[in-house]
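Exam revision sheet. Question 4 asks you to relate a sequence to its structure. Input first:
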Amino acid sequence: MTSYQEIDVMHLQQIENLSKKISDLIHIGKYETITHLDHKRLELIKNFNDKNNKYFQKIISEININNFKNIERIETKYKKLKNERASFIKRLKAYNY
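Answer key, structure tokens:
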């Protein structure tokens, strides 16, 4: 294995680990550190040497799928929180009259 391949394998592992961390953070609702982790993940992807590697393509495909799932989950949580807030405001207004 060449040093470029070794570096790529290491990067793939880091990308996969970062993706798992991001998914876990989204699941528990800790959104503040996601941007930083996602930026690190994107830098690793950009610096990947062998973009024709099947394993790399598989990892990127999984990241893409997970990103869509995470976005849907965030949007669902956001809508739920927004509805709960609107309901709370209505109740608060009713008690103030």
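Marking note for examiners. Residues 22 and 35 are 9 Å apart (CA to CA).
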